[in-house]
Amino acid sequence: MTTPGTAVTAPPTIDVHAHVLLPGIEALVDGLPGLADARALDARRNGSAALRVNGPMIGERIPRLTDPAVRLAAMDAQGVDIQLVSPSPSHYHYWADEETAEKVYRLANEATAAHCSAAPDRLRGLGLVPLQHPAQAVRALDHALQQGLSGVEISSHAPGRELSDPDYEPLWARAEETGAIVFLHPFGCTLDERLDRWYLSNSVGQPTENAVALSHLIFSGVLDRHPDLRIIAAHGGGYLPTHIGRADHAWQARPDAGSGCAHLPSSYLRRLYFDSLVHDPGVLRELVRVAGADRVLLGSDFPFDMGTTDPLGALRAARLSDADFEAVRGGTAAALLRKD
């Protein structure tokens, strides 16, 4: 109960989906065997038209991606108090060998922590884990936490490995034990050239990858074995939350679909967290309905063009109840960040 005359402090506005560009990583991998093939694959997946747009788009945003002062000014203009900052997914470099992968994650963790140290009351950070080398994953997570970061960012898969791979069990166990945040943000879509026009590689590919990755976590029983994992899915979890009924039906109708997890797939949505970046007020309302406002967090994809420059405006457009609006605006994220 609030004492009469005592002011009630609202939770800060927290954006959990914002990126930092780390030029040192690209300098580190420049010219190494494997980089050219990785870039060629990226070019095939995105198509030439997308690549012509991407360069100038990123170039114009370099100050916001690298300069904490410019970032903070942009946050002020958006009405955002705190950002959870993760490396640009272009820094994953899951093609790298073990030695290079360790250098990448160490540099990413240290450079992200340094960027956030410019305003520790307003910037929280996430590091990287080399999913292509599961034996390094726990060390990478521990290194991120040692830098004062809140957790790590991962993609939807690594070459030849899904998130259901048993070799990731030590990572999930350590993340659960430490309370680390795991931010699931895809980079690239394995539908490849089918999506190489009209930027379908992103508009269709990213939500597809989110849905596939989350389905692997659900159907394989990862969330049964690690119920306290704190996973945030970017882009509202992609297609899965709004089409979860088909997964529920398969789980009930087919023994092969229901063999790996203990409960209806839809029930696991309330064990995951999702950002609000779905670009549609109706979809955001549905996400809040199926997952709960205590599982949805404000996200902008700052400062990329597939994000939103007005995350609060996008949230208001969903016309949520006051309580749900406040939870998504920052209440849920504030509780999440207090735990790390």
Automatic annotation (TrEMBL):
| InterPro entries, sorted | ACMSD (IPR032465), Amidohydro-rel (IPR006680), Metal_Hydrolase (IPR032466)
Give the superkingdom in one word: Bacteria
Q: Does the keyword section mention Lyase?
A: yes
Keyword set includes Lyase: yes
Stored Gene3D superfamilies: Metal-dependent hydrolases
Positions of the Amidohydrolase-related domain: 14-338
The UniProt entry, under Pfam families, shows: Amidohydro_2
UniProt KW keywords: Lyase
**Name the record gives this protein:** Amidohydrolase
